Amino acid sequence: MEHTRRAMLRAGALLLGTSLVAACSADPTTSTTAQQAAGGGRTAKIYVISPQSGPDAALGLGMRNSAQLAVEQAKARGDIPGWTLEVVPLDDAGDPTKAAEAAKKAAADEATVAVVGSIFSGLTKAMQQPLSDAGILLVSPSATNPTLSRGEDYAKKPKRQYDSFFRVIAPDDAHAPALAQHLRSQNTGRVAVVHDGDSYGSGLASAFTEAFEKEGGKVVTSAQIDPKAPLVYTKVVDQLVKAKPQAVLFGGVEIQGGALARQIREAGLTVPVVGGDALATELYIPKSGPVSGGDLSTASGAPVDTVEAGKAYLAAYRDHRFRESATSYGPLGYDAASAALAALTTALPSATSPEAARKAAVSAMSSVKIDGTSGPVAFDEFGDVTPRSVTVNVLRAGAWTPAKTYSFG
Known about the structure:
Low-confidence stretches: 1-39
Shape: elongated
Mean pLDDT: 89
Strand content: 15-25%
Strand order of the largest sheet: 2-1-3-4-5
Largest sheet: 5 strands, parallel
Helix content: 40-55%
Number of helices: 14
Distance between the termini: 34 Å
Number of strands: 15
């Protein structure tokens, strides 16, 4: 399965997502249906596609709930008079094939005006073509592979891939330089690079290698694990121990990353494991072992609990009493839905039908500017979020703690 996290993950919500906003409520889709009478006579649907079952369900459900919250708030404010907004959640179960099927279902629904999803790059990639063919706005909360927006040669010859695709998280070529600069500022000059072969992991590893060498560092060895194999990496661990790096960059998700971190320390290599936003979850910490202090992860933007819009989001999520925790993907889902809604406030009022509003929504999205949960959100000519800000987190006392925020324009 292609687990390509982009996940994103905001530093301020890492612990707040579990401790402050975990509560209980009815399924949010129930409230959506019950509230339809509050709108006008026409219905416009926003599909939310994410893992809502399986090992990544907690992340996908937090994102789903947060998108639902943004829509409910827009309805309460009366942002789009004459229209009833309906959220339709679909489960991709972390499987690209199911993500593509969900996207086709959304595209076939004549009432669809926008889609929010998914949380991993591989899942989002599977959704892009069918939604583009239907002219439907797609906003990803946390897919970070640069190729999704700018193509395979994104560094030298960037070319927009889909006019209808936007994302509210900084791509990997911002996360990687942030990690590289942070490590070099700590006089770390020798790093080993390991990735899981998936779209996210290999993309982060490649971007980091380029950025780290540009900063004067050296990659002393590289390796790849099989994300489908049992979580035992004896050969890779032996390779890392022999290379004697000062840190290990892992491109992949927290389940494999935590297992690798624990095993290299058990083998006597007590150096920091560093990675992108996919490591910045509550799941990584217990898996990485008791000596994982000093590990690094990233999050897009500033810490959520330091930004006014982020504080308001956390309070609203808590007050709503959703059954599931927001997790660190929740703020990203909220921003993605909020940005889509901002475009729809322009596209829907004068539209004769949801299908007629699609082209206008895509066009309006390019000019959208909102106060996001981790800072301002706007979009460049490729549909990527701007400014591209990334916070590096350090693992201290069993919790991810923001260390420094880097901005790349």
